[in-house]
Amino acid sequence: MILKDSIIKKCLFPAAGYGTRFLPATKAIPKEMLPILTKPLLQYGVEEAIEAGIDTMAIVTGRGKRAIEDHFDRSYELEHQIYGTSKELLMSEIRSIVNNYTFSYTRQVEMKGLGHAILTGQALIGDEPFAVILADDLCDNDNKSVLTQMIEIHKKYPDCCIVAVEEVPKEDTNKYGVIAGENIEENLIKVNNMVEKPEPKDAPSNLAIIGRYILMPEIFEIIKTTKPGRGGEIQITDALLTLAKQGKVLAYKFDGKRFDCGSIDGFVEATNWFYAKL
Ligand code: UTP
């Protein structure tokens, strides 16, 4: 079901990373184009955004990522080839996406981190609140997508940024941005601290940020003044901490399953999960 009255109309998809954990598969194919069954990760993300009432997809790509643009475009020769056959059905979802939604692209020239990738998307987003989906975090909920849940919260707290969080084993905190704060509603936390990839002993909690965000446009100016952090990269977690200190960041414990498809284990788990649902 598509959310009808979403006030968030644009979704940014940072997809410029090198995907080194999937080499050699990602040498010539973007990580976001790796398929779970027959559908690329990025298409799952786009479908989640559409369900949340978003009509404009802003994609940050990089060198060697042209397959992304080709996927969200017509393919006349192929479509002509399968016209009138049962195979046409296999293309119906992607054809409907291409025909009904807007895609815009920009390139991140230097891969300086997720915060930097989001800043690269500023020209595509402009001055309005927007969603961010990291397509390698694949989320599934049959009733209401994770982004739809977050947009509903945004309606109630329109001045706040929202990050999706889930509990992770304490020994895994060094793979994520980790938050701390106080509960203001069931499953909703006002964030007062956030740290990028802390070692378990330094982690303020075991609540990890996953790849879904609602951001206010003021984040762009903050990213511009954010110094490189963990790994020498410009981290969105560091930029958001500035807003968290002003009480403007909420963390939402979402309802649904999340697969870290940037890792081999998560990718296989997601494949098995969706195969079992066929
Ligand atoms: P990851 O931390 O998973 O990095 O990025 P990666 O480069 O994609 O993968 P590995 O670790 O080398 O295997 C999280 C998300 O942020 C995007 C990635 O495309 C991914 O969706 N990203 C990251 C960028 O767009 N630009 C960057 O500079 C870094």
Please supply descriptive tags for the structure shown above:
278 residues, alpha/beta, Spore Coat Polysaccharide Biosynthesis Protein SpsA, Chain A, five-stranded mixed beta barrel, two-stranded antiparallel sheet, 13 strands, 30% helix, binds uridine 5'-triphosphate
What order do the SSEs take from the amino end to the carboxyl end, as H and E?
EEEHEHHHEHHEEHEEEEHHEEH
Q: Record the strand order, biggest sheet.
A: 8-11-9-10-12
Structural class from helices and strands? Answer: alpha/beta
Number of strands: 13
> What number is the mean pLDDT?
95
Query: Helix share of residues?
Result: 25-40%
- CATH homologous superfamily designation: Spore Coat Polysaccharide Biosynthesis Protein SpsA, Chain A
Please report the first level of CATH classification, the CATH class: Alpha Beta
Task: Supply the CATH architecture.
Answer: Alpha-Beta Complex
Extract low-pLDDT stretches.
none
What's this model, at a glance?
Helices cover 30% and strands 26% of the residues.
Structure, described:
This protein is of the alpha/beta class and 278 residues long. The chain has one domain: Spore Coat Polysaccharide Biosynthesis Protein SpsA, Chain A, CATH 3.90.550.10. 30% of the residues lie in helices and 26% in strands. It is built from ten helices and 13 strands. The chain has a five-stranded mixed β-barrel. It has a two-stranded antiparallel ribbon with strand order 2-3. It has a two-stranded antiparallel ribbon with strand order 7-13. A hairpin with a 2-residue loop joins β9 and β10. The longest helix has 13 residues.
